[in-house]
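Q: Give me the 3D complex with magnesium ion.
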Amino acid sequence: MTAVEIVDLHKSFGDLEVLRGISASVATGEVVCVIGPSGSGKSTLLRCVNLLEQPNSGKIVVNGVEITDRDCDIDGARRRLGMVFQQFNLFQHLTVLDNLTIAQRKVLRRDKAEAERVAMDNLTKVGVADKVRSYPAQLSGGQQQRVAIARALSMGPEVMLFDEPTSALDPELVGEVLGVMRQLADEGMTMLVVTHEMQFAREVADKVLFMDGGVVVEQGPPDQVIGAPQHERTKTFLARVLDPIHRTE
Ligand SMILES: Nc1ncnc2c1ncn2[C@@H]1O[C@H](COP(=O)(O)OP(=O)(O)O)[C@@H](O)[C@H]1O
Ligand SMILES: [Mg+2]
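A: Here is the predicted complex, encoded as structure tokens.
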């Protein structure tokens, strides 16, 4: 089964063509990692898949439904995709519990007890159930990102999208978030992950896409794309991110 199919996707902002014909697919239960230099269009790709951006042309199909179809119910389509952002995007004025229940109640129309039960299940799963009454500012970055993951999971998504989920974290907090993502992958969640964590991509991804300049330069199993890249641009990028002294991203 194909969970996400992206066909010849184009996206421009004014004169700037950011996605120049992206085609890729994510099979059900698969983890696909997207790597590539800053500005290559990785976030725009994820935002198009989630319909936070309207692509100029091309097609996105999620579990058989073409979400880029004009007649598609955008809210319905968006609900099927969970998104986790670099900056967590939690509501600062709400407790952890309310962060997890608000969309369940408003969008899914769950009653309070049901929404809180789902919230607690997911907070337990990501290991922050003891923070349920706290506000985001009282949590570490790693805890906040785990709450953001639990919030996305509480909506029952078919696919989880992650946009550099560990890039804003202090190095010592990266592992706890990657651990949760690894656990989700092991449970069979379908995931599309933009990341600079090459070790994670190598160990967890079924497939790696290297993007540069709005195109997929190279894709395949991690041992191939990261372990034995064929293209010069992939080699240059990997040399830069894998070299700890010159590491800037
Ligand atoms: N809303 C926007 N309006 C104009 N330009 C944008 C917008 N979003 C992204 N861009 C531009 O698109 C290019 C790709 O950005 P992005 O998808 O964020 O790349 P990445 O996530 O790979 O760093 C960049 O040049 C960026 O400045
Ligand atoms: Mg980005």
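A quick observation: The mean pLDDT is 95.
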